[in-house]
User: Fold this.
Amino acid sequence: MTLKQTLQALVAVVLEEADRNADFAQRLEDALGKASQIVPTKKSRSRASALVDPVATLDEHGEAELRRRLQSLSLGQLLDVVAEFGMDPARLVMKWKSTERVVEHIVDGAKRRSVKGDAFRA
Assistant:
């Protein structure tokens, strides 16, 4: 018997019992009603919101100010910036333990993003 046939047989038995037994039918409706009320939730964010917008800071205040602001953050806060702005597609930066290395990565990424599209602006 195939999976489809097995499931059809199971559903047929459940329907027959529901037709014959009002108590079973009510319990089945209650169970299905409760199941339909369950709404899948999105995975909660495990990281906090970024304290610095690197591209905006670079554009408005320059690289020196961006570096100053980033260096005042902890490693966890720097990783929040990386996560929020999608600066780690290969999932490597999140494993780094050096704040200087993460700061350099964020600054480089912000520089690339701030000039992206300049060829079309003139």
Notes: Residues 3-37 form one domain.
